[in-house]
Amino acid sequence: MIRYLETEEKGRCLDLWREAFPEDSTEFCDYYFKEKMKDNKVLVREENGEIVSMLHRNPYRIYMRGSGAVCDYIVGVSTLVAGRHKGYMRSLMLAMLRDMQEERMPFTFLMPARESLYRPYDFRYIYDQPRWVLKYNPHIHREPCNLKTLGADLAEWQTAWLKRKYEVFAIRDEAYLQRMKKELASENGTCTLLYDDDWFIGMQSEWGLKEREMRYLYTGEHYRSEAGRKPAIMARIVCMPEFVKTIRLAENCPQDEVTVEIGINDLFVPQNQGAWLWQLTKEGSRMIQESRFIAKGKMEVLTISELTEWLFGYRTPAQVAKIPYGEYIEPFHGVFLDEVV
User: Fold this and answer.
1) What domain count does the chain have?
2) 296 in the same domain as 199
3) Where residue 201 sits, what CATH number does that domain have?
4) Whole-number Å distance between alpha carbons of 255 and 282
5) Are residues 320 and 281 in the same domain?
6) The domain spanning residue 276 has which CATH number?
7) What is the bridge-based pairing of β-strands 190-196 and 248-249?
8) How far apart are CA 41 and CA 54, in angstroms?
9) What is the Cα Rg of the chain in Å?
10) Are residues 178 and 70 in the same domain?
11) What is the overall mean pLDDT for the chain?
């Protein structure tokens, strides 16, 4: 049986969580089950009344090029050792995608333990996590972060900092920062404010009960250097018409409005499958489905995974060059999704 747990039942999945994620500290588990379970959805498969497989849908308000949408961050994907290789997780993933499509969710995302687990469901990498370090500067000093008095101002600063370079990120507000404070505390983390003499230049945090590591460093390029980056977040477009609302034509496009025909292959979300008319302007776009069937040779055809990589600005498929005005279709510039759970 596949269903969502009621709020009062969510504690039932703690044993499976501990089996699947033994590296998580007691303190972090306490934080997660007390805080993140307040507003998430836990989809489970039960056999004889026992939870044998689960995934957690943790909602985030996502900024998408001037617009906003609630998109779920998928965590806690796990199956009892005794229940593996029986198709339990596949059944949950398909049920999840069906439900998200009915909710008209633009996309969903996750941080994979193994990429190979999610590629079959058309998840693809869209974000490489940079590892930033603070440059030496004798004028930089740190002050404790007091969210009680500065929470709203710091959330506003983080949002402005992100908007300068990114078009997709989790929206910051005071509640976001308060929850982050609790998340950091679960791993003995700290958050400090950075100043260049008297000028506020950013925020820095580290955490780790055993080994300390940087949780985040938000500051300008003048004050940081990059010590590497690695693929971190995979995503999947769920509801194509919702996703493309803020995809637009580039300003240098010779036409102010363009309509192109494309085919989309999506094995798991049938509502995306088929031939589409894509109407684009320099402000946004919309998609109208012509047919569930794609006429052979009539249009360029892309898989939903190729569209995901392209429209998040991660990788451009070869077919784009053959789409009329394809070079002027502007994907998102800059994705920043550094959430952990």
Assistant:
1) 3
2) no
3) 3.40.630.30
4) 9
5) yes
6) 3.30.1050.10
7) unpaired
8) 10
9) 22
10) no
11) 97
User: Do 12 and 54 sit in the same domain of this protein?
Assistant: yes
| SS3 label, residue 141 | strand
Structural domain span for residue 319: 240-330
Which of 70, 86, 121 marks a domain boundary?
121
Sort 94 into a burial class: Cβ within 10 Å, 0-12 / 13-18 / 19+.
Answer: middle
Q: Are residues 260 and 155 in the same domain?
A: no
Mark which of 97, 121, 145 sits at the end of a domain.
121
Does 188 lie in the same domain as 78? no
Of 122, 184, 120, 174, residue with least CA distance to 149: 174
Dist CA 222 CA 227 (whole Å): 15
Among 307, 325, 328, 327, CA closest to 317: 307
Q: Give pLDDT tens digits for 247-267.
A: 999 999 999 999 999 999 999
Each residue of 278-293: pLDDT tens digit?
Answer: 999 999 999 999 999 9
* CB contact set of 174 (below 8 Å; sequence gap of 6+): 147, 151, 152, 155
pLDDT along the chain (341 residues), means of 10: 97 96 95 97 97 98 98 98 93 99 99 97 98 95 93 97 98 97 95 97 94 94 96 99 99 98 98 98 98 94 99 98 98 97 90
pLDDT score at 210: 85
Structure tokens at 122: 């058309």
Write down the pLDDT at residue 88. 96
Instruction: Write out the two tokens for 43.
Output: 């989809």
CA distances from 259 to 25, 102, 235, 255, 296 (A): 53, 26, 26, 10, 19
Q: How far apart are CA 209 and CA 341, in angstroms?
A: 17
Q: Give percent helix, percent strand, percent coil of the chain, each to the nearest 5.
A: 30, 40, 30
Q: Please work out, in degrees rounded to the nearest 5, the angle formed at the alpha carbon of residue 98 by the alpha carbons of 92 and 103.
A: 125
Distance between the two ends of the chain, CA-based, in angstroms?
Answer: 26
